[in-house]
Design goal:
By secondary structure, the protein is an alpha/beta fold. Helix content is about 30%, strand content about 30%. The chain has two domains: about 120 residues, Rossmann fold, CATH 3.40.50; about 170 residues, Dihydrodipicolinate Reductase, domain 2, CATH 3.30.360. The protein contains nine helices and 15 strands.
Amino acid sequence: MAVLNWGILGASNFALHHMGPAIDAAPGGRLAAIATRASDRAGPFRGIAPDLVVHDSYGALLADPGIDAVYVPLPNSMHVEWALRALSAGKHVLVEKPATMKAAEFDDLIAARDDAGRLVAEAYMIVFHPQWRRARKLIADGAIGRLVHVDGVFSFDNRADPNNIRNQAELGGGALRDIGVYVIGATRYVTGAEPSKVQARIRWEAGFDAFTHIVAEFSDFTYSAVVSTRMAPAQEMMFYGEAGSIRLGAPFNAQHFGDVCVELRQPGGRTVCERFNGARQYDLQVAAFNHSALTGEDYPCPLEFSRGTQEMIDMVLANHTSLE
């Protein structure tokens, strides 16, 4: 059975603790190589893949003929450059979100994907989690009647780590790009709708957004969300309809944040909780990527979808007022 041999550009903690194990565990692939100049950082990855090849540069990994697919978890500002380089080297590419800094940059990725005949996708794992597929079906089936309003929140506090790339404006840091993609993309995924009007209030810190409050209008419902890297950890998505509501209490870090329950609330106090605590969304994402890359079948979360999320992020940045 054919498998993809994967390489990782860089030795990030996220790759070590989440995506590296998923790449090696998901059917259809294996972790084969990593690129880092810091040999001590490569060592822990051998706990995932004992036969791991370590390259001392990103270019050397891309030149390795034994590597079929590349995962790009570099700082946000480097995503497009290295995704395009990987494509030019003939590799399939899974690039961390946000894949680009502006929606227009997706056009270059899409054109390069089509020219190369390789799969390129943004690592947007939540759409592979069964809780989100269930929420989408419930809304499509009319379980809460006509959708009226959506609320979202995603926050954590990393002010104690000023060197974190999320606290570096020049590297594309900030709450909106790091976690805003979730409260925005999840809403678009569940509803299939796009915003017609977007406004926001942003609190800036050293050139990046530490707090963003979004208010938007879609064709049939209103929307509000808060994302912040200066608040206590919180995450929740609420979908309010004329005949009920749906709550996801661990919508984004499903394996780590808490009980993974799709809670359907209906008139009369009836509440049904469907739990999905055993699902591993990173593994499911990589398995889907492997399948599409090996078979040529359509990938469930294409760049065109991710471009739409970045378009809304661009709208937030273009239509905001600054908070003191």
